[in-house]
Amino acid sequence: MTKEGDLLPDARLFEFIDEASEGCAVGPQSFSTRERTAGKRVVIFGVPGAFTPTCSAKHAPSYVATSSELVEAGIDEIWCVSVNDAFVMSAWGRDLRATSKVNMIADGCAHFAEAIGLTQDLTERGMGVRSQRFAMIVEDGVIRTLKVDAPGKYEVTDPDTILAALR
Questions:
Q1: What confidence tier does 152 reach under pLDDT thresholds 50, 70, 90?
Q2: Which one, 44, 121, 135, 165, has least CB within 10 Å?
């Protein structure tokens, strides 16, 4: 498992772009985790699945609600990463009203979750391989803080814990 002080593994993640801009068409766009975190402070939190009970009722909404506090504490971007496709993550983001607060990032094949060593097998529950629940602070590509919840729990990956680590 990745630990504090490690370089964030480079993986390709996807984000659905709703509005076209110069050089960026509408639709899923891939990016390198290393390139996108270079020179930035990023909070990345991972959830087992979009539209799942704890993820939708508590985890993701708590980051949407505290996004301005995280930005005031020096965070450049907030990512919600899940083993879902970019279309699902975009729909979930709209449902949560996360636009311009939390970037809804797709790890469709669990490559990022595998690279950081935080997968869990939920095949028996019909979900396949998913991410464990985690939260991290990444500074210029280096993991400075990493919190991982025990399976089925939501205790240490909340934004209050991350805000405390930033202070």
A1: confident
A2: 121
Segment 19-47 shows an average pLDDT of 85
Give the 3-state secondary structure of residue 58.
Answer: helix
- The two tokens of residue 124 are 């028996």
Predicted TM-score (pTM) of the model is 0.93
What the block records as the tokens of 68 is: 């301005």
Beta strand 103-106 with 129-131 is unpaired
Establish whether 55 is a catalytic residue.
yes
* Mean pLDDT score, 100-128: 91
Closest to 131 in 3D by CA, of 146, 142, 117: 117
Q: Which residues contact 87 (CB under 8 A, 6 or more apart)?
A: 16, 28
Q: What residues does 78 pair with on adjacent strands?
A: 43
Rounded to whole angstroms, how far apart are CA atoms 70 and 8? 20
